[in-house]
Specification:
CATH class: Alpha Beta
Helix content: 25-40%
Number of helices: 9
Order of helices and strands: HEHEEHEEHEEEHEHHEEHH
Largest sheet: 8 strands, mixed
CATH topology: FAD/NAD(P)-binding domain
Oligomer: single chain
Strand content: 15-25%
Bound molecules: ligand 48H
CATH architecture: 3-Layer(bba) Sandwich
Radius of gyration: 18 Å
Number of strands: 11
Number of domains: 1
């Protein structure tokens, strides 16, 4: 028999289990754009316990909108293997690059991350970090609705061995860390800031810049270029996915 109280109990019990299982994990990821989703999948595939916190109701970040809201993304040869790995369909165009549907891409990145065992929490924002002598030891989280309504509500915490800032252009976690710890592992110790569009340069730099930016805090995706002072690239997404894969590999080596 369908009963409202039973529905409510099923939702609460199962949601509480997921969040309780995430209190002390291997890797916490802030941001569910392409870089965060790809990282989540490969980390979970590698046996890590991983939870991803996304501010919005939907994951996918800037991928949904393709280029100027035309729902297509371009992916270069170097990242074709990741499209295959996620079962994303594509066509090779005349320019020797691959074109995929942005909606299908978000859906499959998300589904594969969840299938691999990553836990994804939407509508939750990372609003601070925990810092100990060893470095960053986890995220301070709150419902995004609390911030949106400007309510004074204290947050909760998630402890993790490693954290990833995959918050895209605003590189929010690194900004918080920079404010609280003083200097990051960047040339100036500051957030260097994103430069203007130069796709070819940017796509290789985003992979190069995917690294540990403070003890146990890694940066991936657009945030990596924003932190290390590299250009943006427009609607080519190979670098985001390669960055997600690289950060997963770097962390798995240390786990
Ligand atoms: C929880 C947060 C918080 C927070 C933000 O922007 P994204 O898609 O990031 P990437 O790096 O995976 O991909 C970048 C790509 O989409 C892009 O913007 C490109 C290629 N631009 C090129 C150009 O030239 O403009 O996703 C980041 C996600 C978003 O969903 C945010 O809502 C979320 O992070 N987020 N989640 N806590 N504090 N801040």
């Amino acid at each position: 028999m369908i009963d409202e109280t039973k529905i409510t109990r099923a939702i609460l019990e199962n949601a509480f289990k997921d969040i309780l299982d995430s209190l002390d994990i291997d890797v916490a990821i802030a941001g569910g754009g392409p870089a965060g989703l790809v990282a989540a999948r490969y980390l979970a595939d590698g046996g890590a316990s991983v939870s991803l916190f996304e501010r919005k109701l939907s994951v996918g970040g800037g991928m949904w909108g393709g280029g100027m809201m035309f729902p297509k993304i371009v992916v270069q040869e170097a990242a074709k293997g990741i499209l295959d790995d996620f079962g994303i369909n594509y066509i090779e165009d005349k320019e020797g690059q691959y074109v995929a549907n942005s909606l299908e891409s978000v859906a499959k990145l998300t589904a594969k991350a969840i299938d691999a065992g990553a836990k994804i929490f939407n509508a939750i924002s990372v609003e601070d970090v925990m810092i100990r002598e060893s470095g960053i030891t986890g995220f301070v989280i709150n419902w995004s609705a609390v911030g949106a309504a400007n309510l004074h509500v204290d947050p909760l915490t998630i402890a993790s061995k490693f954290s990833i800032d995959a918050t895209g252009h605003p590189t929010e976690v690194c900004h918080i860390a920079r404010k609280k710890v003083g200097k990051l592992n960047t040339p100036s110790g500051e957030i260097e800031g994103e430069l203007s569009m130069w796709a070819e340069k940017s796509e290789s730099l985003v992979v190069e810049n995917t690294k540990e930016v403070y003890s146990n805090l890694y940066v991936a995706g657009m945030a990596a270029n924003a932190v290390f002072g590299a250009p943006r690239m427009g609607p080519i997404f190979g670098g985001m996915m390669l960055s997600g894969k690289k950060v997963a590999e770097l962390i798995l080596e240390r786990l």
